[in-house]
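Structure ticket #2291
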Amino acid sequence: MSASGVDPQLLNSLPADVLKTLPAAQPPRGAQANFDDPPTRVPVILTVGVIFFVLALQSYITTIVITPALGLIKSCLFIQYYMVFHPLRWVRIAVWIGLSISTVFYVVVSIAALLLESPWPGESFLDDILSTHYLFFANFSIPVGVVGMLVDWYLFIIPVPAVWGLHMSSTKKLGLLVIFMTGGL
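Resolution: structure written out below.
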């Protein structure tokens, strides 16, 4: 017998199924042991896990889908400017330069996003989110945003001199510029 009054030989002889039901110590004063329906935090842990998984999946899908979509939207605006202002040589040149830079940029960023944010072979989504290649792409979010903003400004600037050179009243010119600028909202 040990000092606690429990025979170690008896404990060693018990099967594992019986040992699982035995308490390790006496419960604190005023508390009762509850082996039939113990309190659990599984719903809370499961809810938090599902929320984080949904947020991570939403972030992944957003990055993979939105990046090429932004490039396509900006390409459509460049093409629209080309079609509307094609008699002006400088607009055609500006559109080709902007379209080329924007297309190359968004293709490269889309490929990088797909490669760096997707799980690599043998990785789960959780492993991917915690991986260095996923975080490496996150470091590019500010430079990607800055370049995207510069392309937006370029798109804002192209129609201004073209519209201002039209033969119409200043009020109509301002109205037309407001219509072109609504795309930036």
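Closing remark: The mean pLDDT is 84.
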